[in-house]
Amino acid sequence: MRNVIIIGSGCAGNTAAIYAGRANLQPLVVSGHEAGGQLSLTTLVENFPGFPEGINGPDLVENMKKQAQNFGAEYVDGVVLDADLSKRPFRLNIEGNWTETRTVIVASGASARWLGLESEQALIGHGVSSCATCDGFFYRDKKIMVVGGGDSAMEEANFLTRFGREVTLVHRRDEFRASKIMLDRARHNPKLKFLTNTVVEEVHDVAGKVVTGVRLRDLKTGKVWDQEVDGFFLAIGHIPNTKVFKGQIETDAEGYIVSKGGARTSVPGVFHAGDVEDRTYRQAITAAGAGCRAAMEAERFLEAEGH
Ligand code: NAP
User: For 227-245, how does the pLDDT look when each residue is reduced to its tens digit (9 = 90+)?
Assistant: First the structure.
């Protein structure tokens, strides 16, 4: 029987593990399918307080993990395959082993949606990014491309015009999901060019391990061409990792956990931390803060139950 199982090993999960570990709860952390979370996919992180020269994303999460392990947190590779939250103790199927726990912290994050091209996947962290806030700064005076037609794409494309020499927004249709105000703002931005009815077929240059351009296709005319690009940003949505809790924890239509105040979910004893609930900020530092909050609430919950 565990006091707390933390699902996810990104900033939220690791910070929850540090706090729960220091509270002597001996947390078990299930690393998840993307160990280290989204930070493990980035390079230099310059906006996490405390690192004036910046710190590599993978180093930052690894340090957090070590810090948690120093306080007795235990890590297990793998994912939660199934869950029974209908009664306490809760039961989680971790890679085939059912484990009982008094509390659960869901810090399983939201994964950026990718186009799914092999070349795109190979160049993540080498010019391909899903986070303008994190990586925009590296493309000062460079050519930037953003893919997407929703509010995120408009927001990120606008933001990136602060850095890039030119920013091209590529969208597969000529209608946009983005709200009118965000779309108008983007349309009036003189540094932003729109390419609609257009898809990206390939990101160059995998052999050189750096983004140098893309191959595009106009869906109306069939025209195919190459365009030089230094920074390639995806803003085609995120997918919260809550499938395993479907029907057990209240989520919104897109699968994000609905907060019941603080770190509480609809199930007493199950807490949320990080991007699995947060569709707005999605930053390492906000996820870390949420992890702290979830661990403190889990601790209080256990105390109130007499454990
Ligand atoms: P979204 O609204 O779901 O838009 C995703 C966009 O990506 C759509 O334009 C979609 O194209 C495109 N897309 C999806 N899969 C694609 C693929 N495989 N290839 C090419 N394009 C693809 O997602 P979002 O922009 O991240 O926004 C999510 C939510 O957060 C929304 O409710 C939004 O309003 C909100 N949000 C608000 C703000 C703000 O108000 N400041 C900022 C960001 C986000 P199609 O349209 O053709 O499907």
Answer: 999 999 999 988 999 999 9
pTM reported for the whole predicted model: 0.78
Distance CA 104, CA 266 (A): 12
Q: What length does the chain have?
A: 307
Position of tokens 């809790």?
Answer: 245
254 and 203 co-located in one domain: no
Which residues are annotated as catalytic? 131, 134-135
Of the three residues 190, 209, 234, the one that is the final residue of a domain is 234
Pairing type for strands 166-170 and 143-147 reads: parallel
How confident is the model over 163-183, as pLDDT tens digits?
Answer: 999 999 999 999 999 999 999
Which residues neighbour 232 within 8 Å (Cβ) at sequence distance 6 or greater? 120, 123, 127, 128, 129, 144, 145, 147, 200, 203, 211, 214
**Site of tokens 């919104």:** 252
For the chain, give the percent of residues with pLDDT over 70. Answer: 100
pLDDT, mean over the chain:
96
- Picking from 247, 269, 241, the residue whose alpha carbon sits closest to that of residue 32 is 241
**Domain-ending residue, one of 202, 234, 266:** 234
How confident is residue 111, by pLDDT bands cut at 50, 70 and 90? Answer: confident
Element holding 17 (H helix, E strand): helix 11-22
Distance 294 CA to ligand 1 centre (A): 28
How far, in Å, from the CA of 188 to the mean position of ligand 1?
20
pLDDT tens for residues 19-39?
999 999 999 999 998 899 988
Domain residues for 10?
2-111+238-304
Atom 2 of ligand 1, nearest CA residue: 150
Residue 228's CB is within 10 A of a number of other CB atoms, namely 12
Q: Which protein residues touch ligand 1 with a CB less than 6 Å away?
A: 113, 115, 147-153, 155, 172-173, 177, 236-237, 279
